[in-house]
Amino acid sequence: MNDSAKSTSLPVLIAIPAVVVLCWAIPRAVVGAMGIDGHWAPYLYQYLLGGLVFGIGLAVIKRSGACDFDRPGDRRWFAVLIVGYVAYAAIHGVVTWLAVAVPFRGS
Questions:
Q1: Which segments of the chain are extended strands (E)?
Q2: For residues 42 and 19, what is the distance between their CA atoms, to the nearest angstrom?
């Protein structure tokens, strides 16, 4: 096994069990903190676990060399990915808050 294969296999061997454990632990922590009927539990679960997977994806993009910060276009698109994730989570959070906070008068 050459040196580059050794350097990439150890993080992968650590990351895979860590993600599996977090996939088990995050829902239990969120439901334990907010209860099974919490309005924010699905939101937090989605964006905590989704953020973890998104961050791993960004790390793979960076480490593989697919994104080179010396190129201005790559810096911009990397920033667009991060800002887009945060903006989407914020919009979803506002809509969730409005659904919970604003009274609805049914017919």
A1: none
A2: 18
